[in-house]
Amino acid sequence: MAMSYDRAITVFSPDGHLFQVEYAQEAVKKGSTAVGVRGKNVVVLGVEKKTVAKLQDDRTVRKICALDDNVFMAFAGLTADARIVVNRARVECQSHRLTVEDPVTVEYITRFISSIKQRYTQSNGRRPFGISSLIVGFDFDGTPHLYQTDPSGTYHAWKANAIGRSAKTVREFLEKNYKEEHMESDTDTIKLAIRALLEVVQSGGKNIELAIMKRDESMKILVQEEIEEYVTAIVKEKEEAEKQKKKT
Amino acid sequence: MGWIEILDRAEVVTDKHHIRGSTGGGEIRRAPNLVPLRITCLPNDQDKMFKLSDKILLLCVGEAGDTVQFAEYIQKNIQLYKMRNGYELSPKAAANFTRKNLADYLRSRTPYHVNLLLAGFDETDGPGLYYMDHLSALAKAPFAAHGYGAYLTLSILDRYYRPDLTRDEAVDLLKKCIEELNKRFILNLPSFSVRLIDKEGIHDLEKLMPVGAK
Fold first, then answer.
1. Where exactly are the structural domains of chain B?
2. Which residue of chain B comes nearest to A92, CA vs CA?
3. Where in this chain does the record put each Proteasome alpha-type subunits domain (chain A) (predicted)?
4. Would you give the distance in Å from CA B44 to the centre of its chain?
5. What pairing do the DSSP bridges indicate for beta strands A144-149 and A131-138?
6. Is A88 part of the contact surface with chain B (CB cutoff 8 Å)?
7. What's the mean per-residue pLDDT of chain A?
8. Among A64, A125, A138, B127, which residue has the fewest nearby CB atoms (within 10 Å)?
9. What is the per-residue pLDDT for B13?
10. From the CA of A65, how many Å to the nearest CA of chain B?
């Protein structure tokens, strides 16, 4: 029934599914969580850091990659596939600068990445990329953007989103707690991303990797101490909220 | 410290190394701001210096069009290296990369007819100046020049260059070269843009306009 239609990617099933693409989306759901929040003056990407083996050097496990001085992305899914996509995107960013003398807009590079992904859903003998990505950055006119792509090659703009394992839980948290006024403050935007990740990450700040980009600045990966500061602030706020609730 | 002086198709480049290494060295480059065309003069705001990275400048002269094409191509590839690897190419590596590209194109149907000076500051090696010509020769030099102006200025540089010049002495030596050109060179070169590279990065110095030149 479904079996014979998922062999070759180029074949539709009778009920209109491309099974390979859907299986790719399953692969994404197994990847570690990534969350993105678009503030007014800062964009934030946070990823769940899988605990590394004792002998492993954790600097080589980077899930947040800069594509250019004004754009960076995080992904969920097959790391090896992501490496290819990121490399192509980086070349395209420089190629764009060479031909039109302007840095890419976030939408342009998202569209480029999505086109690559879509091409692989329509080619013979190739399988789709097993990654969803969150692409954030500032256009040269200063507007911040957050886009999400998935293995099918579709992309959408978001104010805040999550991909990977437990993405649904995180997205629901974001929907409940995203407040437009808070996005004016850089600290609140960053805190929202960390709070969202803390929902699903075990053992707190140690397993979070966070990168931020402020307008006209390049991407900055926060060091562990900075993340711990935010986490302590968040924990304190939670305790205050609990105390308030107990009082009333 | 090092410094470079470039004059249109006649370019003069000088570079110095601060051997005693107390405050670190730097390099200065200069390029004229006009394009002489037979007897007329086309004012040209085009900057002949291309910023390859925070501490590397590429000065590219030669065939019109080839210069910008080649320099921008190298510039974007250096940036791509930075994006892919998380750190920038050293000046020595950038110079060799540029030379390799020039060499590959040399024996193709579409060689680039450009003469280059690459100046950069390396954290460990200090300032460095690399001379490259259109036949893809590469040489690290304390001072260098391209073009007809070289015949005049290299002599000045030979005479007055010392490896331990300070920043101000280097600028003065540059001015001496320009005075010489102003006096003896057939083309009128009224203004020069000057840049300096040191451990803090690339700095624009004030434009030099030799007296008597229009």
1. 2-205
2. B80
3. 5-27
4. 18
5. antiparallel
6. no
7. 90
8. A125
9. 35
10. 9
The three-class DSSP label of residue B16 is coil
Q: Residues A176-196: pLDDT tens digits?
A: 999 998 888 999 999 999 999
B80–chain A Cβ distance below 8 A for any pair: yes
pTM: 0.83
Superfamily of domain A22-240: Aminohydrolase, N-terminal nucleophile (Ntn) domain (3.60.20.10)
CB contact under 8 Å between B83 and A97, yes or no, is no
pLDDT digits (tens, 9 = 90+) for B97-113: 999 999 999 999 999 99
Alpha-carbon gap, residue B106 to B111, rounded angstroms: 4
Q: Sign of the CA dihedral B148, B151, B156, B159? A: positive
Domain boundaries, chain A: 22-240
Q: CB distance B76–A95 less than 8 Å?
A: yes
Mutate to test the interface with A, among B46, B51, B80, B87 (most CBs of A within 10 A): B80
Asked if B85 reaches chain A (Cβ–Cβ under 8 Å), the answer is no
B2-205: CATH superfamily: Aminohydrolase, N-terminal nucleophile (Ntn) domain (3.60.20.10)
Strands (E), chain A: 34-38, 42-48, 64-68, 71-77, 131-138, 144-149, 155-157, 160-163, 208-214, 220-221
- Answer yes or no: do B80 and A97 touch at CB < 8 A: no
Helix (H) or strand (E) holding A116: helix A106-119
Minimum Cα–Cα distance from A68: chain B residue? B83
Query: A–B: how many Cβ contacts below 8 A?
Result: 20
CA–CA distance, A179 with A237 (Å, rounded to integer): 16
Residue B166, chain A, CB below 8 Å: the answer is: no
- Judged by DSSP in three states, B129 sits in strand
Contacts of A151 (CB under 8 A, 6+ apart): A21, A24, A25, A27, A28, A77, A117, A121, A128, A129, A130, A131, A132
